[in-house]
Write a structure and sequence with these properties.
The protein is an alpha/beta fold. The chain is 30% helix and 26% strand. Helix 2 packs parallel to helix 9, helix 5 crosses helix 6 and helix 8 packs parallel to helix 9. The longest helix is centred in the first third of the chain and has 18 residues. The structure holds pyridoxal-5'-phosphate (PLP). Pyridoxal-5'-phosphate (PLP) binds next to helix 10.
Length: 428
């Protein structure tokens, strides 16, 4: 099996043509490193499937997976649209001079101020989650004399989990309009009657880190069934994101092109069956665009051996820069950056430096012999690592470095202690 990382002739980990040790010398640890060519390849991979299918489409990067100015700039270069979920992400898009007409806005509780920010900046499409929001958009659009493009997010009754999916009669979810109760149809009729909005179509997002294509097919099929039942011929069907990636050897995701092809085929077959025009297909991948492109670099510090139980190997980061293991029990693969293929001599739990027992980065990892000061690389951390980072324990958030063609560039500076306290105000 090919390794999910590259080494130089000396056998050292390299990222985008630069060795991990050089990156650490220049930028210190903990460090988020992205191989930008992998990001571009993932984006182009999605685009190629749609181009080959010869249909109208939008590939929108679900930017909550990794929202930074530099990332938005790369998305713009590659002709990838953006999905945002907050005023902060909208501001980041503005900072990146991102074309706002190519931005869509998701979320179950968008504030009035966030919607104002969206409409004032010509944000392309708002994915409406509830009637409260629809009414605010209508009012804001009317006040500005514009017609706002919207999609309606619905919960189609398909729930997907990592390795299985279940189709439920009613869906227990905080997101979107419920179909079975008739909520979705009521909202559809209201949106169609509202001259301040232009209802382009429907949206559903069934979950994340999904390996099973059947879940996506079921959702795509259900969306067409639903609009057909309403007598609605949508210009757009958006099936969301959620394509699973490889974190460890145990993950064997299908190529993302397989997922997209299956979604397109299902929508084509179903709309043909109902004699409906083929809509544009929009997707919102997040993790699959940035996850495999990211690597976290740490310096190994202390070690604790609990006889007969396990050994803990501690690094200088942890749940503040990658909360996923603590939050979802998710797993990663770690390698010794200077010599990833040296024979393994120990099995350890890689722990962080935060004051929580659950502060783990890798639950169980075989490694070569390690010394304090060695650089440990945790692979495939590009999605939901930096974007979920916190200042827990008042640790600074690490820098983010983009590497491409042998050139490394810091795109988010490392926080300093001054950054951490600068919003504090004295009380006494
Ligand atoms: C999180 C999310 C995505 C992206 O999910 P990934 O698993 O990162 O691909 C897409 N659309 C919506 C609405 C989301 O909430």
């Amino acid at each position: 099996m090919t390794k999910p990382y590259e080494v130089n002739p000396a056998g050292e980990l390299t990222i985008g043509g630069v060795t991990a040790t050089e990156l650490v010398q220049e930028f210190q640890t903990p460090l988020y490193v992205y191989d930008v060519s992998k990001i571009r390849q993932a984006m182009q991979g999605f685009i190629q499937v749609f181009e080959a299918a010869n249909i109208d489409y939008v590939v929108s990067f679900a930017s909550k997976a990794f929202a930074t100015t530099a990332m938005y700039e790369v998305a713009a270069q590659e002709g990838i649209h953006l999905d945002v979920v907050s005023g902060g992400e909208i501001s980041t898009a503005l900072n990146a001079n991102y074309p706002m007409a190519h931005v869509s806005f998701n979320g179950n509780n968008k504030s009035y101020a966030e919607l104002e920010l969206a409409l004032d900046n010509g944000l392309g499409t708002i994915i409406v989650d509830n009637l409260y929001e629809l009414h605010m958009i209508s009012e804001l659009a009317a006040a500005r004399g514009i017609v706002q493009n919207i999609l309606m997010r619905i919960t189609p009754g398909v729930e997907a989990h990592t390795h299985e999916f279940i189709q439920t009669g009613q869906t227990d979810s905080k997101f979107g309009f419920d179909v079975n109760s008739g909520q979705a149809q009521t909202a559809y009729l209201e949106a169609q009657a509202d001259a301040n909005v232009n209802l382009l179509g429907v949206h559903a997002h069934i979950g994340s880190q999904i390996f099973d294509i059947v879940g996506f097919e079921a959702a795509a099929e259900k969306l067409v069934d639903i609009v057909h039942e309403w007598g609605f011929e949508p210009a757009v069907i958006n099936t969301g994101g959620g394509f699973g990636i490889r974190y460890t050897d145990e993950d064997e995701p299908k190529p993302t092109s397989d997922f997209v092809t299956a979604i397109i085929n299902k929508i084509q077959t179903k709309t043909a069956e109902y004699n409906m025009p083929m809509p544009a297909v929009w997707i919102e991948p997040g993790r699959s665009i940035v996850g495999p492109a990211g690597t976290s670099l740490y310096t190994i510090g202390s070690r604790k051996d609990v006889p007969g139980i396990r050994s803990y190997l501690a690094v200088d980061g942890g749940m503040g820069d990658n909360v996923r293991p603590a939050m979802y029990q998710s797993n990663y693969e770690a390698i010794l950056a200077t010599n990833p293929s040296a024979p393994t001599e120990q099995v350890v739990r890689v722990a962080g430096k935060y004051c929580e027992s659950g502060d783990v980065l890798v639950w169980q990892q075989a490694l070569p012999k390690t010394q304090p000061g060695d650089v440990l690389a945790v692979l495939a951390t590009g999605a939901y690592g930096y974007s979920m980072a916190s200042n827990y324990n008042r640790n600074p958030i690490p820098a983010v470095v983009f590497v491409e063609n042998g050139v490394a560039k810091e795109v988010v500076a490392r926080q300093t202690y001054a950054d951490i306290i600068h919003l504090d105000r004295h009380y006494v």
